Amino acid sequence: MNNTVVVGAQWGDEGKAKITDLLAEYADVIIRYQGGCNAGHTVVVNNEKYKFHLVPSGVLYKNKFCFVAAGTVIHPETFLEETTELKNRGVDLSSLKISPLATITLPYHIDIDGISENSSGKNKIGTTKKGIGPTYSDKIGRYGLKIQDLYDEELLNSRLDAILPLKNKILEKVYGTKTYSKEEMFQYCKKYAEIFKPYVCDEWVNKLSSSLKEDKKILFEGAQGIMLDIDYGTYPFVTSSNPIGGGAATGSGIGPTHIDNVIGVTKAYVTRVGEGPFMTELLDETGEKIRTIGGEFGTTTGRPRRCGWFDAVLSRYCVLVGGLTEMAITKLDVLDTFDELKVCNAYRDKRNGKIYNDYPTNINLHKYLEPVYETLKGWKTDISNAKSLNDLPENARKYLNRLEELVGIPIKIISVGADREQTIVLENPFK
User: Fold this and answer.
1) Pairwise pLDDT comparison (125 vs 274), residue with the higher score
2) What superfamily would CATH give domain 265-425?
3) What would the pLDDT profile of 55-70 be if each residue is shown by its tens digit?
4) What pLDDT is attached to residue 123?
5) How far apart are CA 29 and CA 27, in angstroms?
6) What confidence score (pLDDT) does residue 37 get?
7) What band does 122 get if pLDDT is binned at 50, 70 and 90?
8) pLDDT for the residue numbered 119
């Protein structure tokens, strides 16, 4: 058994979709275990780009069971747009299924998200305004709608009777926006039931149990990144779910004893979209150079990503809380033209010189800290055609070796370009 989780080991946008797509060829089951349409995954196959938000990126392979699990929140219109586009491009979606326990993002969730973010001023979080936070809030508050509720009229009736009076009061009194009648919500739910009907997997318990008994290879696909985890990220500048490796167990319905590997995907540098602390952020020409070469703009929002040098302090923290057993390094080729590269190996308090080797979770402290860098030589060579570790120039190998030493886990996959084929796999967990 080599069941494997692929998780972002920064603030999301690390290239998880490419790694998931690569490993999905060897897996039998691919499970998206958390997050919603605020996630953006881009896969390049034969120079063709595929953008995913809710659908597991492993769907590009035939005869794979692709499952959107209970830990996710699903916006029906986005799901419809995404599946329609994939079908129009000839992608077979017959193996795509969604959990009846997944929670639905409703129109008022998006209303609330937009109003909340727009009125937050300097305290804004940087949400994508896709309704993700309000959907998870209602899920935890037990005011959410599950997909299975759509197909039981009696249950749906009682749920709307319980939900709408409170939500409408909040919409009107707190947010000053439109309210929703029960009939209006019924019409939405009727439409949503039709959207989801071809994909709902009522027999998911049997399907996953059988996969385990038959020793099928299972790949768990996360969204966002560890530093956006609701419990362990840079709170409150986080997402509303658990992208960490442990989230794969709670989100998928498959317990932690069935997980063997957790691959942390990290760029050869660091990026972040949205607000919040970022110790190695570069607000100069170097940061702009990384952004331009790396094409660092959000898949979902198009927002320019903040860019900085690799942060080993952050990565060591991700190894602990994320349960990482190995690393996949992406976008190493973006650093091809740099004379020198910097790696942060500690933080220094500017007030008293105190050194932090471990990541401080109190983000208010971060404004007093600065990165402690070590400098490595660049390789000044195009590595995009490298097929093996030996094809990489010596300084590129030295850079990777130093990252391994500082972070404490081995690098098993190295990406040297956007295409599926531009990947050096030192060890495949499914082979």
Assistant:
1) 274
2) Adenylosuccinate Synthetase, subunit A, domain 3 (3.90.170.10)
3) 998 899 988 999 999 9
4) 56
5) 6
6) 87
7) low
8) 57
What's the CA dihedral at 203, 208, 213, 218 to 10 degrees? 150
Band (pLDDT 50/70/90 cuts) for residue 337 is very high
The C-alpha atoms of residue 137 and residue 278 are separated, in whole angstroms, by: 26
pLDDT for position 128 = 66
Please give the Cα distance from 322 to 66 (Å, whole number): 23
- Cα 19 to the chain's mean position, in Å? 12
CA angle 402, 408, 414 (to 5 degrees): 60
Which fold, 103-196?
Adenylosuccinate Synthetase, subunit A; domain 2 (1.10.300)
Q: What is the pLDDT of residues 390-416, one digit of tens each?
A: 999 999 999 999 999 999 999 999 999
> How many CB atoms are closer than 10 A to CB 257?
7
pLDDT above 60: residue 125 = no
- Spell out the domain ranges in the chain: 4-102+199-263, 103-196, 265-425
- The per-residue pLDDT for 334 is 98
More confident residue, 365 or 118: 365
Q: Which CATH superfamily is domain 4-102+199-263 in?
A: Adenylosuccinate Synthetase, subunit A, domain 1 (3.40.440.10)
Average pLDDT, integer, range 239-243: 95
Q: Which residues are catalytic?
A: 13, 41
Q: What residue type is 425 in one-letter code? A: V
Is the model's pLDDT at 144 over the cut of 60?
Answer: yes
Give the C-alpha separation, 191 to 375, whole Å. 57
Rounded to an integer, the average pLDDT of 357-368 is 97
Six-digit token string for 105:
């993002």
